[in-house]
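Cross-check.
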Amino acid sequence: FTINCPVHGQMYLPQYVKLVVDTFCFQRMRFIKQLGICANVYPGATHNRFFHSIGTAYLAYEFIKNLRRQHPELQISDRDEVCVTLAGLCHDLGHPCYSHMFESFLHQLGKEKRKMAGQYGKPLPAQLEASIRKYETWSHEKASQILVVHILERLQASLELAGLRRDKYDDFILICELIDPPKKELHECLRAGTLKEKWPELIKGRPVEKAFLYEIVSNWRSGIDVDKFDYFRRDAHFLGLQRQFDHVRYMKSARVILDSDREQGVPTISPPEKDRDNIRDNLMELRKTLHRTAYQHKTVKKLEQHMIDILKLLDKTPFLTGSSGQKLTMSQAALDVDLVAYPKLTDMAVESRLLEAEEDFLQEACKEYQLRFLQRKIMRNVIIWTLSNEEENPRFQLPEEDDYLARVLTAYATAVIQASRPNAPEYEVTADQLRLATAKLNYGMGHKDPVKNIIFHDKQLNKRGYDADPDANPHRTKLFLFWNPPNDLDPDICEATLHRLTTAASTVASDLNGDALPDTTPASPMKPKRASATSLDNDTLDAKPPPAKKSRRMLKVQSSCPDALEGLFGKLEQLD
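Predicted model, tokenized:
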């Protein structure tokens, strides 16, 4: 089974991979774009989940083969190799149309249902609470596991010929665990020092002696895995970003060592210590670059909000035939992971209906799609606010979404802000016209630095400790506030309203940020240079000044109306 890939070149894979590739559940990924709505902003990014999944399987296959050559004492078997390769192949099997955005769609439906149910002021019945929770907690990983089990059971006889078994350590369970390991529970045991002891309770696919297998496809320790190796390289290629991480070097230099010198040590994949800076600068920072530049671009965020509105309109009518023969809505098909209806949820299936506009119940959704995606009449950007983190502003706390929007509307209605454009008539902005979205720019583990979880080794394969990196910047959050004005609103009124909204939102941001000074200058992409560890000046060497207190982060906001920000910040300076 050979494929020519624009990213990895010739990919040679075992024949059992083709058994899975030639199924409907896998072939449907040809019609799901890897970056979803992002392709409407970066037209070249039309690559799909189908090719990414095969690329991940190829890297998983090459990685496990390399570990097998380097460590014969680990007794990596043919079964282990097949399971790791199939896990890489099937890890995205459960993605619906528009991938991660569809999860946001279901979560918003859950939020709206909870808000409606909470109007009665009573505790929700257990059945209703469970129903709403299904919306709020739905994820494509759960759907992937159901579809993976479905495919493996259908192909069981053929896969057993390839070496898979269902004995003491069930290979079918192992594949599911490799795709979605219990990360939260594993981290808790790691922190408590009981990982080796608790392993049999958490993991059923393999004993703790083969714990390193669980760090190849979906690395629960640090997030460094072949899934990211493929999509970082593939996405950057099709986005036109000239930046990449040398995953081949990583896979060839990685070894397996114990994560502790004590008896409780668990085998883990370890890169050489000399690659520490390379991993941070060219892998972790690359992730942030992709999110900042493409995945969470402001226009992508706007279009995602519009598509969620369109999906809500589509979801009013059942139009997917399920396994029982009944028609299901998109949300019903996803929540139940109906094995007939759910695989039909692809980008192509949705967009073909929206473009054809032949069914009466789709007319409202089709008009909205043509207006937003074809005619490009989209939301306006009020502000983009880069939030302070705990170190920069310990007292900062962002209110809930509804509270924040209410404060913005209250500020908007004040006489001072309405007078910012005295010649333009007033326009009443309603809460349903404002949309709040967040972009979390990090290394993949929220506020934590995943590099701290990596066990490095020296030339003698001895475990090396981690030195704190002052340049590490693992987490930054941006808040987007958009305004969705009526299509027939007068352009002059629209511009004046946007100007006033920007002033109002910036005032609220300044209040919430505390006593931080406003900063409207663009942040420099270059990090400040670290002070040299040595100096030729003896006085400098002898002197040990007290560490400087970290300055509070300045308020950083961007807007489509920079003059509104200038006016606001000028007024604040006068107040000082």
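The chain is about 45% helix and 10% strand. Residues 516-552, 570-576 have pLDDT under 50 and may be disordered. Passed to J.P. for a second look.
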